[in-house]
Design goal:
32% helix; alpha+beta; two-stranded antiparallel sheet; 6-stranded mixed β-sheet; globular
């Protein structure tokens, strides 16, 4: 783990170097984790199962998997691997299951017609986004590497906390 203050329930990151730089083996391993966590079973969030979002296949794997392991290239518009996201695939389910722990900040946010739930593991700069419909769906998981994005998330969370703080 990268941070000595990480929660004890968090697993170590999974690096490409553990697979001698072999992208195909690494990607297959990451998919095996994703499959176990979101296809073969589902984590529970607020008493409801969380299903993977967008199950449409792309290159033989659900688009939701690609969304949590890659990002859109601004110049080409194509999705390219994001190693920080890849390294943390095993964290997604853990963060969902440990929501309610003080290390995981949770707040809802309206996004167009949908209510999204942001789950932010602040000490690790990792955000999991779920969408709430009749069920919960995993939208994405993002390693936050820009200070301005982190500040925006902190601000959203603080505003949520200020609105929901019980009156004394």
């Amino acid at each position: 783990m990268s941070n000595p203050q990480s929660p004890t329930w968090l697993t170590p990151i999974i690096e490409l170097t553990e697979f001698s730089g072999n992208w195909n083996r690494y990607n297959d391993h990451l998919f095996s984790i994703f499959k176990k966590d979101f296809i073969d079973s589902q984590p529970i969030f607020h008493g409801k199962p969380v299903f993977m979002g967008n199950p449409a296949l792309f290159n033989g794997k659900p688009e939701c998997f690609w969304h949590v392991t890659s990002q859109k290239d601004k110049q080409t518009g194509e999705r390219v691997p994001n190693l920080r996201r890849c390294e943390r695939v095993a964290w997604i389910r853990l963060i969902i299951e440990h929501c309610g722990n003080p290390e995981v900040w949770e707040w809802p946010k309206q996004h167009e017609r949908d209510l999204r739930h942001n789950l932010f593991l602040e000490k690790e700069n990792f955000l999991v986004v779920l969408i709430e419909r009749k069920k919960f769906y995993l939208v994405t998981a993002i390693y936050i590497n820009y200070p301005h994005t982190r500040k925006r998330l902190e601000s959203e969370y603080q505003k949520h906390c200020a609105k929901t703080k019980p009156a004394r």
